[in-house]
Specification:
mainly alpha; 0% strand
Length: 71
């Protein structure tokens, strides 16, 4: 834990390194968000095709509540 704290302190001291880290994290969050949106789109399409909710959950990784909120 101390090593991680020291590494974080060093990274935050260097503006260029911190900026690069923040850009990478933003890109990662954007990709995760895009993938999540795609899962919802796929789930919606599967619901329109009257696929069983359990199958949609298995195929998309969404929760039952998330899938049911689409109907």
């Amino acid at each position: 834990m101390r090593k991680a704290a020291c590494a974080l302190k060093e990274l935050s001291a260097d503006e260029r390194t911190r900026d690069l880290y923040e850009r990478r994290e933003k890109a990662r969050r954007d990709i995760v968000s895009m993938l999540r949106e795609q899962k919802f789109e796929i789930a919606g399409n599967l619901l329109k095709r009257n696929r069983p909710i359990d199958e949609i959950i298995e195929d998309t990784g969404l929760t039952r509540e998330e899938v049911e909120s689409l109907s």
